[in-house]
Amino acid sequence: MKRSELDQASTPESLAEHVARNAPALRQSQHEHVRATESVREATYRGHQIVIRTSYHIEVDGVAVEGHLGVTNDGQVHYHAVPNLSFASAVDLVKQLIDTFPEDFQPGSEEHGHREAP
Predict the structure, then answer these.
(1) Looking at residue 25, what is its pLDDT?
(2) What are the residue boundaries of the structural domains of the chain, listed by start?
């Protein structure tokens, strides 16, 4: 692509149009994988390959908490929306999400979470 074509293709208006045009497909692709979060940890010990898959389905007030949750090899739980924090349990993590993002947990919300990291 030539420089002038790139300049035309990257105007704020053209980028906004591209985002608007592709937003429904992006939303659908994101929601296909977030209902049950699986974390995979691997280690080698005395010549043995260890693989641990941990699955989470978290709800608050009957509404699914969506997003990417992971577990480290030492058992700490983390969530992509609060990347600098880790927790001893998934319950502690969800309590922190409620405290950090109270607007996401208001009555009538259809889904909780799935925030991007700040």
Answers:
(1) 67
(2) 1-32, 36-113
Helix/strand/coil for 70: strand
Cβ-proximal residues to 4 (8 Å cutoff; 6+ apart), any chain? none
Give the list of residues 6+ apart from residue 60 with CB closer than 8 angstroms, or none.
94, 98, 105, 112
Indicate whether this model's pTM tops 0.85: no
Tell me the CB-side half-sphere exposure of residue 19, using CA atoms within 13 A: 7
**Cα atoms in the Cβ-side hemisphere of radius 13 Å centred on 59:** 4
pLDDT at 33: 44
CA-to-CA distance for 41 and 2, rounded, in angstroms? 45
What is the per-residue pLDDT across 54-78, written as a single tens digit (0 to 9) for each?
A: 888 888 998 888 888 888 888 899 9
